[in-house]
C-alpha cells in the first residue's frame, strides 16, 4: 500500500508543500560548493557575540583542529570559556587587554597593550596551522584608533586560505563589515542587567 493513500487532504497538502520546500533547499545546498576560510563579524549591542565566537572554538576543536583566541580590551573579568577551552589541546588563548578605557584611565598604556596584542594576533594570522582565529572585541581597537585600518585589514586579508577569522565587538567599522563574508548584528531587545541582575557565571562570564 502506498504511504500517501490513507492521508487526509490536509496531510497530503502538507506533504506536497514540504516536498517542494525540500527540493528548493536541496538545490541551494547543492549550489554552494565553495570551501574557503571565512571572516565573520559579530556585532551589535545585544548579548551573544563573544560567546558565539567561543562556541566556534569548540566546534573547531571537535574536528581536531586548532584555534587561537585573542581577547582585546577585557582583562579584568575572566570568562568561563577561557577556563575550559584554554586547557584543551590545540588552543592558545591570549588575554591582551587590561579592561575598558574607563577602568585603566591610561591611554598610552591601553594603546601599547593593544599593539602588543595585535603583534601576537598577526603571527596567528600568518600561521596555516591555526584553523580559527578569534579577535574578540577587536572593533573597539579600530574605533578608538588604537590600531589603524591599514594595520588591521592586510593581515586578515592575506591570511592562509583555509583559515577562519571571527571578529567581535559593538559598532564594527564599515570596512570590517565589507571585508567579512558573514556578518551578524545582534540586537539588544532586553538584558537582565537593566533589571538589576549582576553578571551570572556561565551566562554572562
Ligand atoms: P557574551 O560574551 O555574553 O556573548 P557579548 O560579547 O555580546 O556578550 P559584550 O559587549 O562583549 O557582549 O559584553 C559582555 C558582557 O556584557 C556579558 O556579561 C554580557 O552579558 C553583558 N552584555 C552584553 N550586552 C549587554 C547589554 N546590551 N546590556 C547589558 N549587558 C550586556
Ligand atoms: Mg564580547
Automatic annotation (TrEMBL):
Q: Where in the cell is it found?
A: Cytoplasm
Q: Which GO terms describe its molecular function?
A: corrinoid adenosyltransferase activity
Q: Where is the Cob(I)alamin adenosyltransferase N-terminal domain?
A: 1-29
Give the pathway annotation: Cofactor biosynthesis; adenosylcobalamin biosynthesis; adenosylcobalamin from cob(II)yrinate a,c-diamide: step 2/7
Q: Which reaction does it catalyse?
A: 2 cob(II)alamin + reduced [electron-transfer flavoprotein] + 2 ATP = 2 adenosylcob(III)alamin + 2 triphosphate + oxidized [electron-transfer flavoprotein] + 3 H(+); 2 cob(II)yrinate a,c diamide + reduced [electron-transfer flavoprotein] + 2 ATP = 2 adenosylcob(III)yrinate a,c-diamide + 2 triphosphate + oxidized [electron-transfer flavoprotein] + 3 H(+)
Chief subcellular location equals: cytoplasm
Q: Which domain of life is it from?
A: Bacteria
Q: Which UniProt keywords apply?
A: ATP-binding, Cobalamin biosynthesis, Cytoplasm, Nucleotide-binding, Porphyrin biosynthesis, Transferase
Q: Does the keyword rRNA-binding apply?
A: no
Pfam families, A to Z: Co_AT_N, CobA_CobO_BtuR
Q: Where is this region: Disordered?
A: 1-21
Supply the InterPro entries for this chain. Answer: CblAdoTrfase_CobA, Co_AT_N_dom, P-loop_NTPase
Q: E.C. number, please? A: 2.5.1.17
Query: Which EC class is this protein assigned?
Result: transferase
Q: Which PANTHER family match?
A: CORRINOID ADENOSYLTRANSFERASE
Its job: Required for both de novo synthesis of the corrin ring for the assimilation of exogenous corrinoids. Participates in the adenosylation of a variety of incomplete and complete corrinoids.
Entry's family note: Belongs to the Cob(I)alamin adenosyltransferase family.
Q: Any idea what this protein is called?
A: Corrinoid adenosyltransferase
Amino acid at each position: 500500500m502506498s504511504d500517501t493513500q490513507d492521508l487526509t487532504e490536509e496531510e497530503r497538502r502538507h506533504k506536497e508543500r514540504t516536498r517542494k520546500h525540500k527540493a528548493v533547499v536541496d538545490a541551494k545546498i547543492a549550489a554552494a560548493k565553495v570551501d574557503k576560510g571565512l571572516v565573520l563579524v559579530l556585532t551589535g549591542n545585544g548579548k551573544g557575540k563573544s560567546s558565539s565566537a567561543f562556541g566556534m572554538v569548540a566546534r573547531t576543536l571537535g574536528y581536531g583542529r586548532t584555534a587561537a583566541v585573542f581577547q582585546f580590551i577585557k582583562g579584568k573579568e575572566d570568562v568561563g570559556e577561557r577556563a575550559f577551552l584554554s586547557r584543551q589541546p590545540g588552543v592558545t588563548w591570549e588575554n591582551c587587554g587590561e579592561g575598558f578605557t574607563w577602568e585603566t584611565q591610561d591611554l598610552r598604556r591601553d594603546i601599547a597593550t593593544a599593539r602588543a596584542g595585535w603583534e601576537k594576533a598577526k603571527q596567528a594570522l600568518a600561521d596555516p596551522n591555526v584553523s580559527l582565529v578569534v579577535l574578540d572585541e577587536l572593533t573597539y581597537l579600530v574605533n578608538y584608533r588604537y590600531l589603524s585600518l591599514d594595520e588591521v585589514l592586510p593581515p586578515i586579508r592575506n591570511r592562509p586560505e583555509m583559515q577562519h577569522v571571527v571578529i567581535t565587538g559593538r559598532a564594527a567599522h564599515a570596512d570590517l563589515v565589507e571585508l567579512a563574508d558573514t556578518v551578524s548584528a545582534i540586537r539588544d531587545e532586553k538584558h537582565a542587567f537593566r533589571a538589576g541582575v549582576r553578571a551570572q557565571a556561565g551566562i554572562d562570564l
